[in-house]
Each structure stands twice: as C-alpha cells, then as structure tokens.
Amino acid sequence: MNWLPLVTLDELTQVDMLSNQPDISAVVIFKHSTRCSISSMALNRLERSWSFPEQKLPAYYLDLLNFRAISAEIEQRYGITHQSPQILVIKNGKCIFSATHSDISVTDLAAFINS
After folding, report:
1. Is the bond into 85 cis (omega within 30 degrees of 0)?
2. What are the tens digits of pLDDT across the range 12-70?
3. What angle, 0 to 180 degrees and rounded to 10, lies between the N-to-C axes of helices 68-78 and 9-19?
4. Among 55, 63, 115, 51, which Cα is nearest to 89's?
5. Which domains occur in the chain, in start order?
6. Exposed, middle or buried, 97 (CB in 10 Å: 0-12/13-18/19+)?
7. In Å, how far are 39, 41, 73, 111 from 10, measured between CA atoms?
8. What whole-number distance in Å separates Cα of residue 100 and Cα of residue 11?
9. How far apart, in whole angstroms, are the C-alpha atoms of residue 4 and residue 57?
10. The predicted structure's pLDDT at residue 115
11. What's the 3-state SS for the chain?
C-alpha cells in the first residue's frame, strides 16, 4: 500500500476536495503515534490486509507526534474526538466512519469502496 503523507493543513483541504470527486469512493486518514505499540499493531494489520485501489480509496498517514496541529484541525473540522490510533473515512468533506485501537480493520473499510 502507498500511504500519502499528511503533513500540511493544505493537504487536509486536499483530502476534502478528493472526497468530493465522483470517481473516489472515499478518503482514508490513519492517525498514528509512532511511540505506541497498539498504534503500530493497527498500522501493521492495515498494511498486511490492504487491497483497495489507490485511485478509489486514497489513504493518508498522519504522524501525530510530528504534526499535532493537523490532528487538532481534524478533530475540529470533522467533529471527531481525537484518539490514537484512529482511522477516519471522509466522503463529501465529512467523516462518515471512524474507528480506534483494535476496532480498526480493513473489513470495515470495504463497505466504503463502492458507496
């Protein structure tokens, strides 16, 4: 899988724009703490099981320790309480699904690939 780095607020705006494109099923944001073993485990599970085409379900990776301001903006913009690890599914500029910790799974994301 090819993570797209989320390192600027402009890229977060790009996520919203992408999520409105008719050929995009949704956009995923994975919020990862590089110091957390649970976060590393969730990331590993995603990467091992990911089988979605990038052009249908682009996936952004946010390093929470280096980009806290972006995480704060995500919380405010989408109205989702910050967690780590956390995955968000963005469609039409809104968060339509989120999961944290051991609830993060590729199986849940599959529902959004054709929605």
Report:
1. yes
2. 999 999 999 999 999 999 999 989 999 999 999 999 999 998 889 999 999 999 999 99
3. 40
4. 115
5. 4-110 (3.40.30.10)
6. middle
7. 25, 29, 11, 28
8. 22
9. 11
10. 52
11. CCCEECCCHHHHHHHHHHHCCCCCCCEEEEEECCCCHHHHHHHHHHHHHCCCCCCCCCEEEEECCCCHHHHHHHHHHHCCCCCCCEEEEEECCEEEEEEEHHHCCHHHHHCCCCC
Residues contacting 57, CB < 8 A, separation 6+? 24, 25, 26, 27, 28, 109, 112, 113
- 65: which 2 tokens? 């320790």
- Do the beta carbons of residue 42 and residue 104 sit within 8 Å? yes
Tokens representing 105 are: 């799974």
